[in-house]
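Help!! Second protein's tokens look totally different from the first
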Amino acid sequence: MCNFKLLLLVTLSWCSSFALAFAQTPPESLDLRGLNLTPDQRSQLQDIRREDQQSAAPIRDGLNTQLNQLRDLYTSDAPDEQVRSQYDRMQVYRQRLERARFDNLMHIRGVLTLEQRAQLRSQFGQRRRTNFSFARP
């Protein structure tokens, strides 16, 4: 039983770390520098980024709150059903944050020309191949 609790605590810690890292990874991590953006596109992307930061902040705060509550419940003598219920509430915030990030990427995509999108796809393909090669022993 002690090993199970340790495993669950480690899993919760990993999940919360992943969620926060994902939540804090801004879409500006996209390398848009080589896309030859026009001044108008740059302005639009700055507006999108600003709007995203404003709309995602309360969701990130809510996720942090839910994660903290989950940790508190898990380390207490709370009934399993209460811990599971809190986990479900945390997942709702994680899903909202992922959706907000996706919506932001779609807004960014809408600003780019077809040629710029093709360049961006190429970058994603290179990253995918590079990340995959590091994942292999």
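Here's the second one for comparison:
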Amino acid sequence: MQGGEPVSTMKVSESEGKLEGQATAVTPNKNSSCGGGISSSSSSRGGSAKGWQYRVTAEVKHNITNTVVCRVQGEWNSVLEFTYSNGETKYVDLTKLAVTKKRVRPLEKQDPFESRRLWKNVTDSLRESEIDKATEHKHTLEERQRTEERHRTETGTPWKTKYFIKEGDGWVYHKPLWKIIPTTQPAE
């Protein structure tokens, strides 16, 4: 927050319909709450038949007041238009941003349930164009998840998350900046 106004700094478009930022996360058909006192929701409209497969729309809300501070529209692989509540409009041409290579810990250092490690066999099979093998690996993962869920249900064991907590009808990051960093309200 600067002078009582939420600040959102966006990073680079990541991949296929997903845009992530320091204070916001814009993901098709999802709601998310991130650090910085801002949460967002977005959706991609239509399908590839209509040529809208890259379309992104979002509203960014201040968590404490639930007021819309910014509306976003555009395409995740082209230009995004940010219209702020004060009427200001900014454009970000994502094609002109530098591509930053992801930094990912080596698989052997990842926890067993981290995504890249968990889906390694599926990914490797797809890279080798072994669709049937990839499907088998995926089925094995899904069956393991179903078995684990049945066990939790039978024993009354709640699902434990590492980074998110249930808040109302949704989930929020366990250490959002808007709860950690004291905010100052504008002087009246």
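Reply: Different proteins will give different token patterns, so don't panic. The chain has four helices and eleven strands.
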